[in-house]
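Q: Could you fold this chain for me?
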Amino acid sequence: MEPQSWPEPDPVVARAVRAKNYGRQVPLPVAVRDRLGELFPDEEFAQAFGATGPAGWSPGRLALVTVFQMAENLTDRQAAEAVRDRLSWAYALGLELTDTGFDFTVLSQFRTWVVEHHLEEKVLDLLLKRLTEQGLVAAGGKQRTDSTYIVSAVRDLMGLVGR
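A: Sure. Below is the predicted structure, expressed as structure tokens.
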């Protein structure tokens, strides 16, 4: 795998997202991309990828899809469909309007890959670090093992972006 930075949101997608949400609060995926940028850089996952093999979806992008999937309580099939159909997800993932997405089975394969390479906490740690940097969660204090508080902080982005 050759780690690459995510492209900026496609200008066509960005214009459509702005037009559809004019005067309204933007959807969570748009708020996440605008506020947090490239949340899960591929470099953070490069250790677990071989140098050869077929090109696949960016592990950083798949990690972000799983975060949105959890935040919206979607099945793998629904999350893969959201990547194809929702402008807000295309915007957050830096996809072109014509991107066809991926088969829903990729998400379960990705989760298996994460476990096999002992990266279970990587996504949560990266998310927690960025949320702390943005002041959305406080550093220190009582630590919790339940990710509900992290998901709540991501959802709180919705309220902060509209202000």
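A (continued): Confidence is low (pLDDT under 50) at residues 157-163.
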